[in-house]
C-alpha cells in the first residue's frame, strides 16, 4: 500500500536553539501530520531534503541570499511569535510608567522583543534595549528578558522572565491552510492553543473565541438531544458525536473516525452517506433502530451531514407513555359537578361524601363511563387530603413492566433505557394525597402482590432498589369488571380485594336511572351553548337507547348533536344509532350498508368501535355477536368476511382474539388507534 508521506517543513532560525525551540513547539501540536526540521542559518548551506514549505524566524534572513535547495515556487512563511498568557500577565502587572531594561543576547533581538511588547499593547511601560556590550549610563531596577536572565546586570533587583516566545496562531493557520491540513481536528487543536497565548491578530483571536464558544454551545445542545446524533464532513469523517452517540457506540469521535465504517461494523444495513435518507429501519447491536441522514449544503456543494439514530423500542415506549399520560396531579372535580336527579344516585353521592370524611380505601364499581373517576376526584377534594396530590393512573393503559416502574419508580440503572438518576414512582408523587387506580381489575398477579405489600407495609420499594420509602397515600380503586367474580375464579387476589374495598361504591349504569338521561342530556347541551329544546325532540330515542357507554357516551352524543346542529331550530343531523331507536325520526328507516363495500380502513375502524362498545357494556364480542351488532347498527356483513377482518386486525396487533365466549378485546395499540 502506498502511504502518502507527511509534508516536510523547514524551520530556519538565527540560532540552533531558536530553531530547536520552534520545532519542538510545532511538533507537539502537529507532528502527527507534518515532518518539521530545524536549520540554523549558519548550517543552511546544503540540504538534501525536498521541503514543501519553509518557515523563517525573521524576514531579514534572506537579505544574505536564498539557499539553492529552496526550489522556486516553495511556499515561504515568516514566523510571527508571541507570548504565553502567563508571561503577558506578568508584564501587565508591572506598574504604569516604569522605565526598565529589555535584556536579550543581541541588539536586534532585544529591539525585536521591545517591538513585540509594544505591538501586543504593553504601552504602560518604557523599555530600553540591553545586550552584552551595550553602552548604557543609567541603572534601571527592573528587567524583562526572554529566557536570558544570566545577561541581566547585577544592579537590577527585579527580573520578569517572559520565557521563550511562542509561534502565533496566525502563522499556524497560514501554514495549515497552505498544506491543506486545516480540518476539524487541527482546528480543535488551534482553538485550544489560542486559549493559552496572546494573539497577534485581534480579528483572528475574536474569531477563534467565537468558534470555541459556538462549538461548546452546539455540543451542549446536542448532548441534550436524547437521540444519537453524528456529524460528519464531506468525506464521511466524523466531526462530532453527541453524548448519546458516544454511549451507544461506546467510542469517541476520534475513535469512530468514519461514519459508514462505524455503522457497517455494527451490522447496520443502510444506503451510503452520500445519499440522504429518511426513517431507514435496520438493526444495530441487536436492537431495531431508525436512521435518518441529511446533508449540509453550502454554495450548492455538500459539505457534510448529520445522521440521527433512534432506538425503535424507545420510540414505542414514549408513544405508550404519551398515551398513558397520568391525568395530572390535582383533583379537578368536586361533588357539585356530579349532575343527577335520580334518588338512587343522590343516595350514592351522600354515601360518597361520608366516605370522603374518612381516610379508608375506597373501591368504586360500575360500568365504563358511569362516573367512577368523577367520584374519585370529588371524594379526594372533600377529604382532609384535598391540599395534597391526586394522582390518577389508568392501570390498563401500560404493559406490566412499564406500569410497575411508573407506580413504584426505579433506581438509577435499574434496566436498559432507565433515566439516569432513577425516577420517583406515582405512589411517591401521591405522598400525603390520594392515588386513583383506575381499571384495577386488569393488573397482573405479580403487580397485585406488589400492590398488596405497599398497602400492608405503607412502604414502597423502587424497581432495582434496596431501600424502602415510607409513604402515606389513600387508595381509591375502580373497575368496570366484576371483581368478586375474578376473585372467585382465582384471577384477583382475595387479600388485595378486601384491602381495597374497605368501603365500596356501586355506581348504577345510566339505563338503571333513566330519569338522569334527559336531565344530563339537557345539561350537556346547555354547557355547549346549544338549544336545550333539542332534547325534547329526541326524548324517545334517548330513552330507548341502552347507553352501553353510559354518561360518557351520552356526553359525546350531545357534543355531536350540538356541533352538527349548531344554529338549527329543528334537528337536522342525529347519529345513526339513535335513528334506529327514535320514534320521531323512524320514518328515515335504518339503511343497511354492506360493510364490505366500505374502504378497508373505515370497515376496520367500525369493527374496532363495536368491539370497544361491546366490551364496555359487558356484552359478548365474539364473531357472531359482532355480526349481529353490525346489523343492529345498520350494516350487513357475512360471518366469513367478519372473520377475515378480525384476522387482519389481529395481525395488525390491534385486537386479541380469545377462543370461546370471551370474544375479542382491543390491545393498547387498538385503543390508541381508535382514539385517533
Ligand atoms: N353524574 C355526572 N354528571 C356530570 N358528568 C358526568 C357524570 N357522570 C359522568 N360524567 C362525565 O362522563 C364522563 C365519564 O366519566 P368517568 O370518566 O368518571 O367515568 P368512569 O366510570 O371512570 O369511566 P371508565 O371506567 O371508562 O374509566 C366524564 O366526562 C364525566 O365528567
From TrEMBL:
PROSITE patterns: SIGMA54_INTERACT_1, SIGMA54_INTERACT_2, SIGMA54_INTERACT_3, SIGMA54_INTERACT_4
SMART domains given in the database record: AAA
Presence of keyword ATP-binding: yes
UniProt entry keywords in alphabetical sequence: ATP-binding, DNA-binding, Nucleotide-binding, Transcription, Transcription regulation
Biological source species: Brevibacillus panacihumi W25
Superkingdom of origin organism: Bacteria
GO BP annotations listed: regulation of DNA-templated transcription
Domain Sigma-54 factor interaction: 338-563
UniProt name for this protein: Sigma-54 factor interaction domain-containing protein
Gene Ontology molecular-function annotations: ATP binding; DNA binding
Annotated CDD domains: AAA (cd00009)
InterPro entries, alphabetized: AAA+_ATPase, AAA_lid_NorR, P-loop_NTPase, Sigma_54_int, Sigma_54_int_dom_ATP-bd_1, Sigma_54_int_dom_ATP-bd_2, Sigma_54_int_dom_CS, WH-like_DNA-bd_sf
Amino acid at each position: 500500500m502506498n502511504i502518502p508521506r507527511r509534508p516536510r517543513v523547514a524551520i530556519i532560525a538565527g540560532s540552533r536553539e531558536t530553531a530547536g525551540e520552534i520545532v519542538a513547539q510545532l511538533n507537539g501540536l502537529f507532528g502527527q501530520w507534518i515532518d518539521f526540521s530545524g536549520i540554523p542559518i549558519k548550517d543552511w548551506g546544503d540540504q538534501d531534503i525536498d521541503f514543501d514549505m519553509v518557515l523563517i524566524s525573521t524576514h531579514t534572513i534572506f537579505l544574505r541570499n536564498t539557499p539553492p535547495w529552496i526550489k522556486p515556487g516553495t511556499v515561504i512563511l515568516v514566523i510571527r511569535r508571541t507570548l504565553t498568557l502567563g508571561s503577558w500577565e506578568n508584564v501587565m502587572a508591572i506598574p504604569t510608567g516604569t522605565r526598565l531594561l529589555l535584556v536579550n543576547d543581541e541588539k536586534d533581538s532585544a529591539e525585536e522583543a521591545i517591538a513585540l511588547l509594544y505591538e501586543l499593547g504593553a504601552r504602560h511601560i518604557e523599555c530600553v534595549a540591553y545586550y552584552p556590550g551595550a553602552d548604557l549610563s543609567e541603572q534601571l531596577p527592573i528587567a524583562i528578558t526572554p529566557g536570558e536572565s544570566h545577561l541581566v546586570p547585577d544592579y537590577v533587583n527585579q527580573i520578569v522572565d517572559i520565557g521563550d516566545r511562542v509561534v502565533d496562531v496566525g502563522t499556524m493557520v497560514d501554514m495549515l491552510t497552505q498544506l491543506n491540513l486545516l480540518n476539524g481536528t487541527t482546528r480543535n487543536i488551534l482553538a485550544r492553543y489560542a486559549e493559552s497565548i496572546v494573539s497577534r491578530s485581534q480579528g483572528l483571536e475574536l474569531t477563534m473565541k467565537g468558534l470555541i464558544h459556538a462549538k461548546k454551545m452546539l455540543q451542549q445542545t446536542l448532548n441534550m438531544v436524547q437521540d444519537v446524533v453524528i456529524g460528519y464532513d464531506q468525506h464521511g469523517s466524523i466531526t462530532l458525536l453527541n453524548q448519546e452517540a458516544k454511549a451507544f457506540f461506546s467510542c469517541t469521535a476520534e475513535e469512530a473516525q468514519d461514519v459508514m465504517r462505524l455503522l457497517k461494523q455494527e451490522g447496520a444495513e443502510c444506503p451510503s452517506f452520500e445519499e440522504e435518507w429518511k426513517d431507514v429501519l435496520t438493526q444495530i447491536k441487536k436492537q431495531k433502530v431508525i436512521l435518518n441522514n441529511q446533508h449540509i449544503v453550502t454554495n450548492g456543494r455538500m459539505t457534510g451531514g448529520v445522521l440521527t439514530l433512534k432506538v425503535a423500542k424507545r420510540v414505542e415506549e414514549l408513544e405508550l407513555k404519551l398515551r398513558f399520560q397520568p391525568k395530572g396531579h390535582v383533583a379537578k372535580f368536586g361533588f357539585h359537578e356530579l349532575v343527577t336527579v335520580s334518588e338512587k344516585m343522590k343516595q350514592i353521592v351522600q354515601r360518597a361524601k361520608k366516605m370522603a370524611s374518612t381516610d379508608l380505601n375506597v373501591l368504586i364499581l360500575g360500568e365504563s363511563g358511569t362516573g367512577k373517576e368523577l367520584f374519585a376526584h370529588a371524594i379526594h377534594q372533600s377529604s382532609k387530603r384535598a391540599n395534597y396530590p391526586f394522582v390518577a393512573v389508568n392501570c390498563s393503559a401500560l404493559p406490566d413492566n412499564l406500569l410497575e416502574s411508573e407506580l413504584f419508580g426505579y433506581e438509577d440503572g435499574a434496566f436498559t433505557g432507565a433515566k439516569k438518576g432513577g425516577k420517583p414512582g406515582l405512589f411517591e408523587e401521591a405522598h400525603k394525597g390520594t392515588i386513583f387506580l383506575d381499571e384495577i381489575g386488569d393488573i397482573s398477579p405479580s403487580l397485585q402482590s406488589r400492590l398488596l405489600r405497599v398497602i400492608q407495609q405503607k412502604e414502597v420499594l423502587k424497581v432495582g432498589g434496596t431501600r424502602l420509602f415510607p409513604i402515606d397515600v389513600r387508595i381509591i380503586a375502580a373497575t368496570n369488571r366484576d371483581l368478586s367474580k375474578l376473585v372467585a375464579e382465582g384471577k384477583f387476589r382475595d387479600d388485595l380485594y378486601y384491602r381495597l374495598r374497605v368501603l365500596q361504591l356501586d355506581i348504577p349504569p345510566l339505563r338503571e336511572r333513566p330519569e338522569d338521561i334527559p336531565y344530563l342530556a339537557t345539561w350537556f347541551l346547555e354547557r355547549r351553548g346549544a338549544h336545550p329544546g333539542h332534547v325534547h325532540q329526541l326524548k324517545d330515542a334517548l330513552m330507548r337507547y341502552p347507553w352501553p357507554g353510559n354518561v360518557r357516551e351520552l356526553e359525546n352524543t350531545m357534543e355531536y348533536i350540538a356541533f352538527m346542529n349548531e344554529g338549527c331550530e329543528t334537528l337536522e343531523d342525529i347519529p345513526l344509532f339513535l335513528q334506529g331507536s327514535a320514534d320521531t325520526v323512524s320514518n328515515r328507516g335504518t339503511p343497511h350498508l354492506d360493510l364490505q363495500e366500505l374502504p378497508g380502513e373505515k370497515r376496520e375502524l367500525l369493527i374496532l368501535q363495536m368491539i370497544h362498545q361491546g366490551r364496555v357494556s359487558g356484552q359478548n364480542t365474539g364473531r357472531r355477536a359482532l355480526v349481529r351488532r353490525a346489523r343492529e347498527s345498520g350494516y350487513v356483513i357475512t360471518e366469513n368476511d367478519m372473520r377475515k377482518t378480525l384476522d387482519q386486525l389481529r395481525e395488525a396487533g390491534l385486537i386479541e382474539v380469545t377462543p370461546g365466549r370471551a370474544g375479542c378485546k382491543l390491545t393498547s395499540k387498538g385503543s390508541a388507534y381508535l382514539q385517533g
